[in-house]
Amino acid sequence: MGGMITLDRARWLGFRWHRHGLARRSPEETLDDLLLLGFQDGRQADAGRSLIQRTDGVGSLSVSEAVSPGGPLVSMWTMRGAPHVHRLDEVDLVREALAPRESDEGGAAWAGAVEEVAAALRAVVTGPTPKPEASREVNGRVPASLVNRCERCDADHVPDALFRAAGCRARIVVGPGDGRVTMLHPAPAPGSARGEPDGRGEDDDPRLTLLRAYFRVNGPTGRTLFRDWMGSDTATVAGLWRDLGDDLVRVRVDGRRHDLPEALLEEVRRAPDAEGVVLVPPHDPYLRQADRTLLVPDGDLRRRVWKALSGPGALLVDGEVAGTWRHRRQDREVTITLFGALAPARRAEAERSARLVAKATGDEAPRITWEH
Question: What is the pLDDT at residue 155?
């Protein structure tokens, strides 16, 4: 199919809204691609806050019970070295997709360093282990050239980016911390395999499997967006785009040029409207995997949503970012800041979503305040 294809922004919003599981309380299978790509986690249990807005539980477990060092969902250092929650039985697929190769930007030196540190981590983390203790033990098991002086820590250790990349290779799970200390665990072996969702494992290259899932969830996207989300390099992503070749068509959404598998074109064109009100955390996939200019065209509002440090969560109304929110756990309060007017019925929907924010972290139902 030649030429540029124009797609309506409302259809793009609707496609993403439904594929991100935000249209309703989602059946578990709706989360398959999202969990393959991962929900970014953190000290504020952001993965749990994302999941609870989409589903009541995983199997017979609540969201908070499902994310555990023993599975069925585990948190690991994956995309960009950040902790992400994935299904335990898909950890190896994700690991292989992110495994450094000699052809990557870091070359053989980086790939070798990751394997050296991964071997040390596998030897050290044989049970629940505080990260500082694991770091000290790893220092003595790797070549001295891989240990640097860290001024911030005032200590010698393997650089954090290398440590996290190696943790992924070594199947190290990031578990609940003791206070502010991160605990590391060896990932258990996957349990009995569940049925594979359609399209899973259709490629020899696991990176292509991730890219296809990324398109299925997000619709039109570009190389730079995918590269920055995955934490890869320009040449690697260009190669993946070449591998898809004639499967892709060029599209324009509200003046923004992107690519889309032709097989998804009619589904995007016919996507239902985005409907609903949801509070999502700062690193939710709906925000993290989006063209920010397309999602929030106003530059001043974009700066309020995506802050470099301690960014707020986003209030989503019918697919649009309509405000921000913060949960002050100590005060048992959720403050929602609106970008414009919001009808009372939609405020009630937002307040129901805010109560789920607290439920995800086991907190009491919060007091909800509104600001403009």
Answer: 75
